[in-house]
Design brief:
Helix content: 40-55%
Shape: elongated
Distance between the termini: 49 Å
Oligomer: single chain
Structural class: mainly alpha
Radius of gyration: 19 Å
Number of strands: 0
Length: 180
């Protein structure tokens, strides 16, 4: 008996329930069970601990400032202008977001590439739309680290990230060959 695509569509919820029973969805950060995991597999408690980078921040490098005020150029960028117009990170590198990034980069948890790419797209979409960058690229590991970890973490997440911004110049070349 052959199962058609329409039959599979009707059975999809059943298969998902069986998979959830055999492999319960756990939060990627705290490892607690999540009843409605969604695409991120990050529980609401851990998600709240992931701080987005908000104003005030440097208009060039994106480093956040403590306190209130308007965005402006930081001392480092005004002293020695970088060779780029602007850079942004998706989250403050601390706590839950740091743990998630460390698991991906240093413990070879490559299954985290999709959640990290989705978080980056969510957090950076406004910046990307407003700036219309000429090029978006991952920050690659040093070649020694790439050899030690057996993969290029920036490039690994890149394929997931690039699917939504494929009209950005240079993005397809980086998606296929992030080390060059």
């Amino acid at each position: 008996m052959r199962i058609s695509d329409s039959d599979f569509g009707m059975l999809k919820p059943f298969y998902a329930a069986v998979l959830d029973l055999l492999f319960p969805p756990l939060c990627h950060v705290c490892r607690r069970f999540i009843s409605t995991a969604g695409e991120l597999h990050i529980c609401p408690g851990c998600r709240e601990l992931m701080s987005p980078i908000i104003s005030p921040k440097c208009t060039i490098c994106g480093i956040p400032f403590i306190g209130a005020g308007a965005d402006h150029i930081c001392g480092a960028c005004s002293t020695s202008a970088p060779h780029f117009d602007s850079a942004r990170a998706a989250l403050v590198y601390e706590g839950a977001s740091r743990n998630l990034i460390h698991a991906f980069k240093y413990r070879n948890k490559t299954h985290l590439r999709r959640p990290l790419a989705l978080l980056a797209m969510e957090m950076l979409s406004e910046f990307i739309q407003s700036r219309r960058p000429d090029l978006i690229m991952p920050v690659p590991l040093h070649r020694k680290k790439t050899f030690q970890s057996r993969f290029q973490s920036g490039g690994s997440a890149w394929g997931n990230f690039i699917t939504t911004i494929d009209d950005t110049p240079g993005s397809q070349e980086l998606a296929t060959n992030p080390l060059d």
